[in-house]
Amino acid sequence: MSDLINYRLRILTVDNRTYVGSLLSFDKHLNLVLSDTEESRITKKSWIEMKNKSQKEGNTNSLALAQTQALAPAQALNLNLNAPLFPTETEKPKFKPNLTRRHLGLIILRGEQIVSLSIETGPLTDIKTRVSTGKGTSRPLKQPVSKLKKLA
């Protein structure tokens, strides 16, 4: 996990929200600190429309229908058992949900809310360029603060 510091991550949470941000820090509970974070979620209206369309098509009750008709689940779902496992062409979704997006900035995300974590992009800058010496970098004092003369 420490190798993912400064990587841009996509995180899916329990409540179906997606966060995309740069990982700054984490702990043993998988609590994450993300910077420059954007949240996206499906709106309630869009969620209800998707649910209604799937019920009209009969997709949600197909397993219950299979049990009542004593058919194998593959037959009730009209699955082609001879189809390849990894098809090259995928079927386009019939309904595209409305996503609301908002920029959150710096957030702390609790580990118990995280369902999945995937890498969007690598670190935006190389470590050597971020840590290079130059104007604006901090340097240690030549003598400790305790031994400095106090201004009166």
TrEMBL record:
GO terms for molecular function: RNA binding; snRNP binding. InterPro entries: LSM_dom_sf, Sm, Sm_dom_euk/arc, snRNP_SmB/NAA38-like. Keywords: Cytoplasm, mRNA processing, mRNA splicing, Nucleus, Ribonucleoprotein, RNA-binding. The keyword Repeat does not apply. It comes from the Eukaryota. Residues 130-152 are annotated as: Disordered. One of its GO terms (biological process) is mRNA splicing, via spliceosome. It holds the Pfam family LSM. GO terms for cellular component: catalytic step 2 spliceosome; cytoplasm; U1 snRNP; U2 snRNP; U2-type prespliceosome; U4 snRNP; U4/U6 x U5 tri-snRNP complex; U5 snRNP. Residues 1-123 form the Sm domain. It is found in: Cytoplasm; Nucleus. Belongs to the snRNP SmB/SmN family. This is Sm protein B. It comes from Lodderomyces elongisporus (strain ATCC 11503 / CBS 2605 / JCM 1781 / NBRC 1676 / NRRL YB-4239).
